[in-house]
Amino acid sequence: MTRAKRNRLIYNIVTFVLVIGAFILLQSMIANKSITRSLKGQLVPICCWVVMAVSLNLVIGISGELSLGHAGFMSVGAYTGAVVSGWLLNACAIENTTLRLVLAIVAGGIMAGVMGALIGIPVLRLRGDYLAIVTLAFGEIIRNLVNVLYVGVADGRLAFSFLNKKMPEGVTMLVDGAKGAVKIKPVSTFTAGFVLIMITLLVVLNLVNSRAGRAIKATRDNRIAAESMGVPVTKYKMMAFVTAAALAGMAGALYGLNSSTVVPTQFTFNQSINVLVFVVLGGLGNVLGSVISATLLTVLPEMLRAFSDYRMLVYAVVLILVMIFTNNPLIRSVMNSAIAPLKRTLRGKKQGGDIA
Amino acid sequence: MSQVKRRANVKMVPLQSDAIVPERDINKAPVLEARHLGIEFGGLKAVDDFNLTIGRTEIAGLIGPNGAGKTTVFNLITKVYEPTMGAVLINGHDTKGLSIVQASKLGIARTFQNIRLFDQMTVEENVRIGLHNQIKYDMVTGILRLPRYWKQEKRQHEKALDLLHIFDMEKLADETAGSLPYGVQRRLEIVRALATNPSLLLLDEPAAGMNPHETEELMENIAKIRDQFQIAILLIEHDMSLVMGVCEGICVLNFGKVIAKGTADEIQANPVVIEAYLGKKKEAQA
Amino acid sequence: MIFLDNLINGLSLGSIYAIIALGYTMVYGIAKMLNFAHGDVIMIGAYIAFCGLQYWGLPPVIAILAAMAVCTLLGVTIEGLAYRPLRQATSLAVLITAIGMSYLLQNIALMIWGANPKSFPRTFINGASIRIGQLNISSATIWTILANIVIMVALTLFTAKTKMGKAMRCVSEDRGAAELMGINVNRTISMTFAIGSALAAIAGVLLCSSYPILQPTTGSMPGIKAFTAAVFGGIGSIPGAMIGGVLLGVIEIFGKAYISTELGDAIVFAVLIVVLLVKPTGLLGKPVREKV
Question: Which of A109, A234, C156, C213 is the most buried (most CB within 10 A)?
């Protein structure tokens, strides 16, 4: 086995072991009731943000495009999930919560994926910063649209209306305009969140180390060269973008079905930036980093009041400093020369007499 | 000298109008035909009425002073630019309106004047991108790690190492491409291009930045690649020892126009070329 | 009459977008980056003018000049501290830094001035409105449109006639070649930020004169819409920013009036997506060839 391959394998194993270990630990804490109330309430949201961060990392770190509308895809998923779950309960009388949750998550993923494709087609063939601004615009459009969206279920049928609330008699409202998705029966569970994280990791890590994933990375590193090697660049950018959107939609469905209401203001541009901070702090392209930073930065504001007050200020500074430190050639060379001896000792120890 | 030996005293024969190809390729369809090719950038004719035919196993050279339009010719052949005049035929297919990707699939591969590697990927992965359309499996197979994934990954890996062997680069397979020395990066670009299984390989200043020893080595490798893969090679180069040493047909470009065509000996003796190009170079060296 | 009212409102809003869009388009043309923080410089400018008028008792013109001075300094500082170290970096890294900068400015404003919206004081800009027949044109509208025209003419002359303006055009065409010709690229980029930020201060005052609610997020939405306007008109083009801005303002007001108030923003952004689909270079933009 080559060194690169071995390192990749170790990295993947560490990632999975860490996530599974954390799940087992938390489950046992729940079993013997040693978990704090606030942390228990946060378990599902943590899972959602981890999925959001890992999927955004696929777009930013792996495919090298900036998406600023990730919260928009999450909201598409959340609304779709709420509607599907409500419809299944009202119209099909499916009492099994797990089945409802699974179907809602799948529907949320598909809907967000379709949205991702619709956005991606006009934008991903362009070069430059257009994707950032269009995804941002998309997030705002979605927020505008769900604000005037009304969905109800009556006699087993879904009723939609737009701009004004025209609903048949005896309707049960599922989405009520600016009030958001209402009267949701929460069905999300920590286990479901854990499974979703595992699926996300499996999809992203396996994708990265495959033919398609390498093509995505190649388009990031050098678009013209990738095209010259016969790699259809737009197709692979699209693949990364739509996959990420679908995963964000699934996270959104899980998030939405964790509480009794979902309102449009939960998925603002600020939320997209939060996820961006998770990704940048965890390291662009570093999946394990995204998992850790999303977890810590979701738990930390709850634990530290002081941090919570200055959270956005700190985030802003983090974004700027991380970018300058990792991208300025001067600073990077200084840091590299500081780290190099350390690396050499580590490698020297591992490989024994290899150097001599 | 040794250069002449490498050229193996090939006799050039006329094919059509002014086109020439090596005698051994005369009965085979040409790899590339450029007919009256031209492009205008805002009124300026960067390339004008460019005609070139390259035989199946020919090593051809494209030379000319800086700014003569050599790289533009490459960009026209590889469809980075759509020509405003004329046509490019690759293996007999008209490339009008094709994309860069489609041109690649027709059998063209290239290297770049300013190296364009996938810097953050490993050497082996760079070559695997070249194999993208050679050894395939789809996204779902990759994510689910179906048996086909393992089989094709293994094939890609072995093929990549095979190709890296051309320049004895197997040991570097795990290095990050962006961290390699300049000369090695140039060689990696050639390997990556070869991985696409081209019938025509375009090399844009392959010897740039190399010392005479490395250039000598490169020259041998270019001939070796042609012999081993039985492909045609068109190269842009300023190093005359390399061009004269390895190229069979040479085309001289100046101000976007072809000013001479022929074998190395003919070009060296051509007064127009000496005046426009070699003469100037002598002055600069003096 | 309602139609004409809407049209004038649209022109007025569009003129503000146009002035903001100039900042985006100049920086994009010369530094090849999307300065996400530009919208927040507007907000800072408006706050400075607000402080000058409300707390320091400055005359309006002096307050506006103070706001311009502070914004100029701010723009140049941002460029020097955050963007200059990333001159060789990928556009992704620069864009993320700019987003960080946008958030930093918003949060600094939040710390200084608090989250409560401030009501922007009335000045000569909000003077008596003019009646033409049944048409009522507010003073702020006239000032805004006037300012837009003056700025556009001045800027066009500046880039065409002055040495610095020519240097800017050179750097925007080919940074490397400009450097070889002895143009100080860093200074030219700084200058671009200075001009863009000074204009942002004016835009901030005009914006808050027409829509007098001032809070730390005041600049972000107009900023994003103005960037949309710049893309609409053709990013990098000064007349494009003007046309794009004015058109976008008119589209927004008409969309709100005739389609739906709630969907105003959605309509504006839908325009962006349609433009990118149909003519990615915008109305007046030129296609750029990547050097291979």
Answer: A109
Residue closest to A52 by CA, chosen among A75, A76, A70: A70
The sign of the CA dihedral A222, A223, A226, A231 is positive
Is A329 within a domain? no
In chain B, the residue whose alpha carbon lies closest to the alpha carbon of A207 is B143
Across A84-88, B1-5, C272-276, the highest mean pLDDT is recorded for A84-88
**Spatial separation of the C-alpha atoms in residues B249 and B47, rounded to whole Å:** 20
* Cβ neighbours of A242 in B, within 8 Å: none
Token pair in block for residue A195: 């499974």
Which residues of chain B does C292 touch, with a Cβ-Cβ cutoff of 8 Å?
71, 75, 80, 112
Work out whether the CA dihedral B279, B280, B281, B285 comes out positive or negative. Answer: positive
Q: Indicate the average pLDDT of chain C.
A: 90
Looking up residue B243, the CATH number of its domain turns out to be 3.40.50.300
Enumerate the residues of chain C whose CB falls inside 8 A of the CB of residue A330. Answer: 85
CB contact under 8 Å between B101 and A206, yes or no, is no
pLDDT, tens digit (0-9, with 9 covering 90-100), for B165-179: 998 999 999 999 999
The answer to whether the Cβ–Cβ distance between B142 and A227 falls below 8 Å is no
CB contact under 8 A, A276 and C108: no
The third-level CATH classification (topology) of the domain covering C2-126+137-278 is: ABC transporter involved in vitamin B12 uptake, BtuC (1.10.3470)
Is there a contact between A323 and C89 if contact means CB atoms under 8 Å apart? yes
Q: Which of A241, A225, A202, A90 is nearest to A157 (CA)?
A: A90
Q: How confident is the model at residue B285 (pLDDT cuts 50, 70, 90)?
A: very low
**pLDDT top residue among B1 and B95:** B95
Contact A144 C108 (CB under 8 A): no
Q: How many CB pairs under 8 A join A and C?
A: 130
Q: E strand or H helix at B250, and its extent? A: strand B249-254
Residue B236 belongs to domain spanning = 2-107+198-285
Percent with pLDDT over 90 in chain B = 63
A303 vs A54, higher pLDDT = A54
Q: Number of folded domains in chain B?
A: 1
Task: Put the strands of the sheet holding A149-154 in their side by side order.
Answer: A157-162, A149-154, A172-176
Minimum Cα–Cα distance from B71: chain C residue: C292
Give C196-211 pLDDT, tens digit per residue: 999 999 999 999 998 8
Q: ipTM score here? A: 0.87
Q: Is the pLDDT of residue C14 over 90?
A: yes
| pLDDT surpassing 80 at residue A344 | no
Query: Which percentage of chain A shows pLDDT scores above 70?
Result: 96
Whether residue B16 is contained in a domain is answered as yes
- How many domains are contained in chain A? 1
For residue B10, pLDDT over 60 is answered with no
Tell the burial category of A283 from Cβ atoms under 10 Å away from its Cβ (0-12, 13-18, 19+): middle
Nearest beta carbon to residue A123 from set C89, C107, C276 = C276
**Taking CA A147 as the corner, what is the angle to CA C21 and CA A95, rounded to the nearest 5 degrees?**
140
Distance from CA of A158 to the nearest CA of C (A): 24
**Using a CB-CB distance cutoff of 8 angstroms, which residues of chain C are in contact with residue A60?**
92
Tell whether A258 is covered by a domain: yes
Alpha-carbon gap: B125 to the closest alpha carbon of chain C (Å): 21
Mutation target among A133, A234, A278, A309 for the C interface, most CBs of C within 10 A: A133
